[in-house]
Amino acid sequence: MALDERKSLVLQAIVDDYVSTYEPVGSKALIERHNFSVSSATLRNDMAELERMGLLEKPHTSAGRIPSDKGYREYVNSLMRVDVLTEAEQRDIESRISSSVNDVKDILRNATATLSETTGFVSLAMTPRLNSSYLTQLKILMIEPGKALVVMVLSAGVVKDKIVRIPNFLTGEQIREISNSVEKSLSGMPLDEITMITLASSVKESEIPDSLLNQVIYEAYTAIKQADKLDVYLEGEHRMLSLPDFSELGRARDLLGTLSHDGMVAGYVNEIEKAAADKKDAYMVRIGQEIAIEGLEDCSFITTTYQMGDMISGNIGIIGPKRMDYSKVISQINFVRHKLNDELKKLT
Amino acid sequence: MALDERKSLVLQAIVDDYVSTYEPVGSKALIERHNFSVSSATLRNDMAELERMGLLEKPHTSAGRIPSDKGYREYVNSLMRVDVLTEAEQRDIESRISSSVNDVKDILRNATATLSETTGFVSLAMTPRLNSSYLTQLKILMIEPGKALVVMVLSAGVVKDKIVRIPNFLTGEQIREISNSVEKSLSGMPLDEITMITLASSVKESEIPDSLLNQVIYEAYTAIKQADKLDVYLEGEHRMLSLPDFSELGRARDLLGTLSHDGMVAGYVNEIEKAAADKKDAYMVRIGQEIAIEGLEDCSFITTTYQMGDMISGNIGIIGPKRMDYSKVISQINFVRHKLNDELKKLT
DNA sequence: TTTGGCACTCGGAAGGGTAGAGTGCTAATT
DNA sequence: AATTAGCACTCTACCCTTCCGAGTGCCAAA
């Protein structure tokens, strides 16, 4: 996509103007707002050319141009320069994120709220991917006959628990025994590597009958496997209704309808971040049609990765209209990510 | 509010018609759709009278009438007869709610989703009020020096945990000792009755220095007190956008903006349910202006109480447009509540 | 108390005219 | 070859007017 210099400037100017005014940009307005040293007719020619290249579109014949998805893409890839936040903005984010909470979920929720408020868009955070984290503790507590609680403490201080059914006959003492042997042989093991077999072998010296044991083992196994299920926090959906992009009720409805399936969003984010795990870009941008989810055609995703300890990471990001100030939003996300990392580091 | 019989019928008919058509109801349309044995002029007189009584309103001079908040109130209190769900509806709800999950949160979320889907409105569920439940188990687990996990199992099988900071010097053995004494003296005690004093006295025989002990006790105390914090699940916000009542973007925005503060909603529900704890009505209805929350003037709340064991209860309900089919929605909520109670009973 | 009749009101849909912003193209200019 | 001025053309958004019909309130008669 080799654009000559003036065409680059034109595209950049059109994106900038369109983003800030939400009005299709015409050749005349372009001349007025920017210091082009050529006439509007020349720009018209350039714009026609950019349109032929698929970077611009016309809503209708006698309107100005707006960027196409491809136009935004070019802008994001080559044209924009990423903002630096002002001191005030930085301080604002900083003060909202740093807090005395020491629960991962709360910290994430906090970051999500901050992100949504500062960008004005929908923000999201995924719980950390725990499959490569390891167990530090695992306790099975008897609650009442037939019912037990599996509590797992994972590296990086994440706690998971699940209530499971167990055979009625098992006594608290037996459960304690199982709990101890399981913990002993499993602690330090990455979740990924725990299988029914490792689990079963951890208790093979027990004198409890196999049939009873197996059920407990099975339940413990599902509890462990369930521990790395990813949750997603979405925040600020209502903010989308204030954007001119969704002033048509139909669009707004489709958008919020889609966002209400948060599993869908989570799956998508997970997918694109996995696909890009090798590229060590600080952030990922998906624009308009690039997003393969119905209802989000007019949106862009911007996501990035937070770190929690060495091996554990997760994603945060925003969903906004594709007509957004990419450079600003990206710098906001980057900063939030930065502060979030700091905050999570405090936990360990 | 003594209405003569015909006026009652007129009000009832107007509410019914308005709810189903969303068009102001005129005298002529009323005659056509219902078997009144009088003329439209008579109805006009009645309607004028009902308006004078504050039960009806006119959007403008030459339109039909619509019910006022007071009109809906009268309708709900005296006029409507509560529907019975069809077999099919019942089966539908039943199949969605009964499941093999055995976690209270999941069950509640499930019920909320069902409720929102069947009514088409926003639904909500509050986590159970646990202040009168009692502790059955309390464990403090050492995670790493300086950090411990407080796990509480409450009656009715609710589990809560919280990571707390503890003095770095404390050993796992000491923590275990504290954990045991605390559990011993606190289990069986209602959350309400646990104070710093009861907690402190439970460990007074320990040989651990007071200064260390106190910090642990304090952290445990906050963990316990935090356990009865009420969460609220809101579901189906986007559905409101499909309703004609919120076809104006401004209204929709205000509504969703308000709903996004879910603490506010939770607080309100809690309040009205507490205020009505004595009246053993199956459900509570709050209509339009009766709701003292900005942004919900065009909505109604319908809430009801679910039971979990003997002493523990919580609320579920819906938030819909005040122009809704009250009798239908009420029967839906009642049925969901019923099934939810069944489901929760299975847990114990 | 009910009814038929009638004048009046008002919102909403339909139609028409206009202004203005923007375009593409052509022919002249650099 | 690139740029520019000029011009005819296109289309939307907006405003204004008109008109229809549903609905009302009120009065006089039954």
Key structural traits:
348 residues; homodimer; Arc Repressor Mutant, subunit A; 12 helices; three-stranded antiparallel β-sheet; Beta-Lactamase; alpha+beta; 47% helix; Enolase-like, domain 1; DNA-binding
**Cα Rg of chain A:** 26 Å
First and last CA, distance of chain A: 46 Å
Under the CATH scheme, which architecture of the largest domain in chain A would be assigned? 2-Layer Sandwich
Task: Tell me the total number of β-strands of chain A.
Answer: 10
Instruction: Provide mean pLDDT of chain A, rounded.
Output: 92
Proportion of residues in β-strands of chain A: 15-25%
In terms of per-residue confidence, which ranges of chain A show pLDDT below 50 for 5 or more consecutive residues? none
CATH topology title of the largest domain in chain A: Beta-Lactamase
Q: What gross morphology of chain A would you assign? A: elongated
